[in-house]
Structure formats: structure tokens, C-alpha cells
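dumping these here so i dont lose them again. two proteins, back to back, each one seq then C-alpha cells. dont judge the mess
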Amino acid sequence: MKSTLCVCGSGQAAQYCCLPLHQGQWAETPEQLMRSRYAAFVEQQIDYLVNTTHPAQQHGLDLPAIWQWSQRSQWQGLEVLHWDYLNPEQTLATVSFIARWAESGVAQQHQECSMFIRRADQRWYFLDPTVQVKTKRNKPCPCLSGKKIKQCCLRELALLSCS
């Protein structure tokens, strides 16, 4: 049986790269999560994109827009430029990358420094800088933990910047 290379550009076979993550395995590093999210865009796995976004931001995602963009794009590659994950105890990390695609025959690229956070459940999540969480400090956290946002995700969501 011939294995297919993963669309994330890692050079690994899909069955040993992003496929297990799309089937429920957790990413071990922020880079692995970044690559698997790119592959999810390529394969229109919108549920995976939602589930790997910070829980307090998931409700704010524009799912129809994500789906449409994912479908109409011809994905051409991911180049990971840099990541700052240095040790297993680290809970905050960044991954810089360039994603390339064509839309209506026009080549496009997007360069970004994405932020990732490892929460108490030991899973890495993407912190989406385009999703604003509007809530007051004493209101319930939108991640549905049952805690007040100031005791839950407020500090994590305040970290949305790459340096």
C-alpha cells in the first residue's frame, strides 16, 4: 500500500502526520497543531478548526465564511518559518508561517504569527486574533466551564499578540 504525503508539507505520510489528529488524537506541539489546522482547511474539516480554537472563541467563528473560503481555495502549500516551543512545560507558544493558495486563478499568500496555548486539559488550542470575546469580568466564561471569565479564560485571551 502506497502512502500519501500529508498536505501540511511536513514530508511525512498523512497517516502518521495530520490524519490521527483529525481523528481525535491531540497535537503534541503547537507546530503540529498549526500544520493540522492547515490540512483541515485543505480538506474542509471545519469541525476540527472549531475544536482546536480556544473554547471561549469557538462561538464567535464565522463558520459559513470559513467553509466557503476553504471550498473555493486551491491550496498550494504551507511553509512554517519559525516556532518557539522549547520545552514540554511551556503553555504559550507562537508559530510563524506562510500559507499559499489560489482563488479564482489568482495566487494568494498569508503570513501570520499564530498564538497557541496549552490549557489545564493539556491540549493545545489556537488563539484566534480575529475573534473578540465581549464579556464583563464577573460574567460566565464563554468556554462554558461554569467559572467567571476572570477566573478562567480572561488572562489567556489577553495574550493575543505575537512579538
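---- next one ----
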Amino acid sequence: MGEHDALETWRTSRGALLDSLALARQTISMNRTAAVGAVENIDRTLYPALVAEFQGFCRDLHNEAVSALIEEAAWPTEQLAALTTAAIRKGRGLDHKNPTPSVIDEDFRSLGLPIWRRVQQLHPEDYPDWRASLETLVRIRNAVAHSDQERIDIFFTKQQMTFAYWGNTRKRLTELAIAMNSVVRRYLVEITIVTSRGEDRDRQ
């Protein structure tokens, strides 16, 4: 599905970046001479980074879906195909908004795919936890990005700004990424089958 695999990139280059941040955090936490609050400060940076990388995954996955759909159509010229691709991507929320469930849903619905409904159908037990984890992650990211200390304190009180919580959230997002990737691939197969049948009827 495209030259670059969104899920593979999430697991490799995006995963490596997050791993490096986690390692830096662990190194600082083991340093007895580290300044007071140093660990807490780096914990704050982990959340915006995780949001950014998951947003990148979602954008990559959307790009792959767009490219696959464009390739299935019989365009008279490459220029028309390129213009259509640009039109589909224009105004895409994932290019300038946080990857909230609503933003992700709207972008994939523009391709005819109700992605959350499909994910929920395939994983009814896991879906609520995945979605809640993503929503909480984005809220924490916003609190950190806007230096909203009152909200940050609330997240600390709830034990939602700890390294362990971040690690668990990252694990859930990986599970969600796998599910989203599977849903998109199934949808593209469905579209391909429908398109092929239509072309066969036209030839008859």
C-alpha cells in the first residue's frame, strides 16, 4: 500500500525517536546529581512528542490511502491525477490539528471510510480504551504546550503524567495503529473489488 508503509515507519523511525527520549529520561532519573524537577520536566516533553509521532502516523496512513485510491482510477493524464490528489488533501485536519478522534474520523470519512466504526466493529473490547487513551494524551499535550499549570497539576494528581503512564499509552497507540492499518487495508481491498467489477460490467 504505497511506497512508504505508515505502520512500519511508526515501528521503526518514529519508534526510534520515542525510544531515544525514553532513554534520555531514564538516564536523567538515575543521575543523583540531576537538578530537582529535571525528571518531571522531561516527562512533560514526552507527551507532545508522542502526539506528534502518532499524528505523523495517521497522516502517513491517510497519504497511503489517497495514493492507493488515485492509482485505482483510470486518469486520462498524470496532471489530473495530481490535481485530484491535492484537492483531496487540501484542508486535511491532520496537517494542522491535533490527532483527536474527531479529526482523524473526518479526514478518513473524506475517503468514504468511517474508520472508527470499522475499528470498533473489529475490536469492540479494546476500542473504548484506545480512544480514551488518545483523548487523554491530546489533553495532556495541550496542557503542556500552553503551560496550563492547573491542568498539569490535575494530570499529575491522577498519575497520568508519569513515565509508566506514558509507556502504557504508547503501547495502546501501537495497538490502535495496527488496527487502523488493518481497517484501511481492508477498505482499499473492498474498493478495488468494487471498481474491478464495475470495469468488467462496462466492458460487457
